[in-house]
Amino acid sequence: MLSVVTFLPLLVCAVLLILSRVLPDRAYVLIWITAAAVDLALVVVLWAGFDTGGGTQYEQRARWIPSAGVGYHVGVDGLSLPLVALTCLLFLAVAVYSLREHRRVRSYVCLFLFLQTVSTGLFVALDLILFFVFFDLSIVGMFFVIAGWGHGERARAAALKFFLYTFVGSLALLLGFIGLYLAADPHTFDITDLTRAAPLAGRGAYAGLVLLAVGVGLAVKTPTVPFHTWLPPAHTDAPAAGSAILAGVLLKMGTYGFVRIAMPLLPGSWRRYALAVVVVGVVSVVYGALVALAQTDFKRMVAYTSVNHMGYVVLAVGAAGSLAGTDAQARSLAVTGAVTQMVSHGLITGALFLLTGVLYDRGGTYAIDAYSGLAAHTPRFAAATAVAAFASLGIPGFSGFIAEFQIFTGSLASRTTATAIALTGIIVTAALFLTALRRMFLGAARLPPTIPAAGITDLHRHEALPTVALLALATVIGVVPRWLLDVIEPAGRTLAGLVAR
Amino acid sequence: MSASLWLLISLPLGGGALLALNGPRFPRTVPALGAAVAAATLGVAVAAAVTRPTASAPLFAGMRAGLAVDGLSAVMVVTVAAVTTCVLAFAAGEFTADDNRGRFFGLMLLFAGAMLVTVTATTLPLLLMAWEAMGATSWALIGYWWRRPGRAEAADVAFLTTRTADLGLYLAAGAALAAGIGSLRLDALPHAAPPWLYVITAGVVTAALGKSAQLPFSFWLSRAMQGPSPVSALLHSATMVAAGAYLLLRLHPLLATTVWAGPLVAWTGALTALALGVVAVAQTDLKQLLAASTAAQIGFMVLAAGSGGAAAGTTQLVAHAATKSALFLSAGAWLTALGTKRLPALRGAARRYRLVGAAFTVCALTLAGLPPLSLWAAKDEVLAAARAEGTGLYAVGLAAAAVAAVYSVKAVRYVTRPLPEDPEHGYDTEQHGTRRIAPTTPPPLLLLTFAAAVLGVLALPGPAAWLKRLLGAAGEPGPRPWELVLSAGVALAAAGPAWWWGARPAPVPGAAARAAQGWLHLERAAQAVVVRPVLGLARALAVFDDRVVDGAVRQTARGGLAAARFARRLDDGGIDAAVRAISSAARSLGRWARRPQTGLLHQYYAQAAVCFSVLVLIILLVR
């Protein structure tokens, strides 16, 4: 079942490639939408049959490279199931958003179908090498999306930077995986076995180096300060659909790696270096928010807020490794908050990036100064962006608050000063979103000269549907979060227990 | 039991969300629908106040979203729902067809609904959710006329200021969990052990002072005046600013447990009542005067909460809610009719529209603390609580009461003077006035005015004892008769000279007058101390990010390219050159070896002879 969910998009991609080129552009996108919808429906079935207290479920194992201890092993638990669902939903949203795409549609659709398999596969992988393969392939897929469908020559440079930077990160990750493999007896890359054995327990410096390699690899992908500078150009020059996937799904691969690999496999080192993780998280929170505040380009600003939002996740997972002065409730609250934040950020920032795509489509620029009083011309676009901005700045009623409240409340006991500093991030985020909203959407109407005299059109249906759907789900989580937390909490408790052993 | 409680919050929240989303489709019926939802909410609120329901639902691990109506909440839900109903009934006649009434009425209901959740929440997470949602809707309401310059900025200032203070509640939640109060129930917070107790208290107090526009956060209230008048009427009376006072009244056991918190809160309230009262005196804009007076009057509630006078603070809150909402409705009615809120231009406005004028006068005299109106009695309850804490507090409170009389009388004096020769000259400074009072104005205005006048009965011995029992504060001191007489005397003694002095400039140095006029320059100070440094830091960090962090990455890439070029040179000029040298040497060797191969026999014989001779020579030499 899980393998079907994972490889269905790739299968569709293969069929599209084999089929002749006679289909009209729109047909490709419609096939894509159908495939994504079926995939999402399958995930809903998985979710319905998921036993919240039952640990890892829907497991599948197959021999792959037994001589090297590599197997095909997939399964989902409360940490990965929400992210699998998020992935399928975001790809469906992006598919609907891409209905009007007209540049090399067949390749575009195939690339995104490939990316969906890769992303889903990463979240269900329970083998380090399988994880690594998907991790690397996601970089390859996104490289072509940015280079092929981004904004001109600069996009190719940004894509190259993105590829090389994150590829270096993935090499560090591979180094760490090999370190884990060598320490295990018998040698294996299986995450479940490694979690049970915790082979590096009590191996001070060696374990520290392995954690460093894994940590740097994941930190580049997340990204955290100071490894974040590939993110703004990649986002700014990527097409809206690519940005939404990059921020909504690909960034989660880094933070998911922390909760799936770094914490349960290296609990001792994680606890020892928890302070370093917390510091990186807090610096990402405050630095990301402040740098975002100074941006003059709306999309670049949203990109930097991703650094800020991922910083909360890093802070929480670091605090979950700090045992002193805290109890199990606080630690599992922090972990639950971190996973909720991944889902929440995917929904909200995904919607925000789709909306910036609308902005670029209408005005041809992301410069905040180029617009004023847009709400007069495009009330629905303005309303959607305002809602997304408020959701992103963590107003209760949206998923962001549910995540951030748990993170702050769970982290404060063990890391009081750090959490108190991180709290200022939410006020800076509020300031930057309100300032941008005010400058672009409110006040006297003034449009950039690039907009035709006929005026500016409000959200089309294919633009409104995905963004409103994403924001609606963020609202549902914000108002009635239990259905999501019921899935995450047991896994969060388990993880907090694994780290504390 | 719990159904009525869920209904109480879902009516305004759900109805508000529906109106905000779908309002533009049926603009004509929106005001009636909005007022109807508010009235239904009032009915449910009254029922809830009688039946005292409780409800809860799971929220986070170990923390529930709890709601309950106890004595204090019963008073609050009725007050909030009643004021909301009156304000929405008034607002039905305020908007033109061009305005998006669905957005206005929907947001107003959401705003009031958030306040209802705030006053019924029994756990900190739910309280914080409602608290912040209220702030967000206040942003949308203050910036309602977003096309006009400055409105959106005012909304930003209000939201960012209150949210900065709200961080205190996040801090308090984390500290409560750290202190082992896993349920985050409000009534369990005082059981926390130091030092977490101090963190909880500091966080709660900061959030409450920010929301209530107490010193040093008061400036946002001045900016909030840019919103429509009904928004001011609701925001300044039963919601938003009242939320801070409510929180302190709700958590006064926490203030009592933390030794330093009570005096800190009490003195902040007393000083705000005094200082913002002086600010109110200096204003020449009616809405600004009323805004500053709100901060000052809320100061009395904060003073009560800090002095342990829960019943006194609640009485003051309810009486002030009725008074201030009626005052803002009057100001709003004049603004709509005459297009101005400048006090000099409003000369004689009460004579022109006598009904509104009468309501305004009664409410302003209530605000002045004149007997036998409600705030006179309520304030004496507060002052009695303050006197139990210390004479200093009592004296400052009494001084603040005198200032209240001065600013109230100032406003009354302007609007009740005879109309000037050419009143039209000063009108229409803000908007184009309609020169009429809408038919929807008098009923809610008169209702609120009536309440403002008579709510003082709550301070009579019988009702006061009932209220204290209701709030579980039976042992609270009440005012002695001499205190009532003294405060009435002070109010009258301040009101008389203020009337006589009239519009002449105040006998104080220019700098002090300008400071009072400019709200003590609090916003400028916040700009200088917080906003500009943060913006500067942000810009510096952005440059740092581009030049240094990303610069390092670019340098690494350049370093990689340079290393590659060096390797190419090494490869081409070193290794490959050596290979080429060897091959060319081999080639020249071959060339030399080819030279003797001529194909001529005599030359071969000659070569053989030479070689033979050399061989002989070598043998001879070696032997």
Characterise the protein shown here.
Chain B: This is NADH-quinone oxidoreductase subunit L. Chain B: Its main location: membrane. Chain B: InterPro entries: ND/Mrp_TM, NU5C-like. The complex is a heterodimer of chains A (501) and B (623). Chain A has 501 residues and is mostly helical. Chain A has one domain. Chain A has 20 helices and two strands. The longest helix of chain A is centred in the last third of the chain and has 36 residues. In chain A, 63% of the residues are buried. Chain B folds into two domains: 384 residues, no CATH class; 89 residues. Chain B contains 24 helices and two strands. Chain B starts with a helix and ends with a helix. The relative contact order of chain B is 0.07. The model of chain B has no long low-confidence stretch (mean pLDDT 90). Classes of the chains: A mainly alpha (501), B mainly alpha (623). Chains A and B meet through helix 6, helix 12, helix 14, helix 17 and helix 18 of A and strand 1, helix 5, helix 6 and helix 23 of B.
List the helices and strands and how they pair.
The complex is a heterodimer of chains A (501) and B (623).
Chain A: H1 2-18, H2 25-48, E1 57-65, E2 70-76, H3 81-97, H4 105-124, H5 128-149, H6 152-183, H7 191-197, H8 204-221, H9 231-237, H10 240-265, H11 267-272, H12 274-293, H13 298-320, H14 328-363, H15 374-377, H16 379-392, H17 399-412, H18 416-441, H19 461-479, H20 482-500
Antiparallel strand pairs in A: 1-2
Helix pairs in contact in A: 1-2, 1-4, 2-3, 2-4, 3-4, 3-10, 3-14, 3-19, 4-5, 5-6, 5-10, 6-8, 6-9, 7-10, 8-10, 9-13, 10-13, 10-14, 12-13, 12-18, 13-14, 13-17, 13-18, 14-16, 14-17, 14-19, 14-20, 16-18, 16-19, 17-19
Chain B: H1 2-22, H2 30-51, E1 54-60, E2 63-68, H3 71-91, H4 101-120, H5 124-142, H6 151-178, H7 196-211, H8 219-224, H9 229-235, H10 241-250, H11 252-257, H12 261-282, H13 286-306, H14 310-338, H15 349-352, H16 354-367, H17 374-389, H18 391-416, H19 442-454, H20 461-470, H21 481-501, H22 510-517, H23 522-594, H24 601-622
Antiparallel strand pairs in B: 1-2
Helix pairs in contact in B: 1-2, 1-4, 2-3, 2-4, 3-4, 3-9, 3-14, 3-19, 4-5, 5-6, 6-7, 7-10, 9-14, 10-13, 10-14, 12-13, 12-18, 12-22, 13-14, 13-17, 13-18, 14-16, 14-17, 14-19, 16-18, 16-19, 17-18, 17-21, 18-21
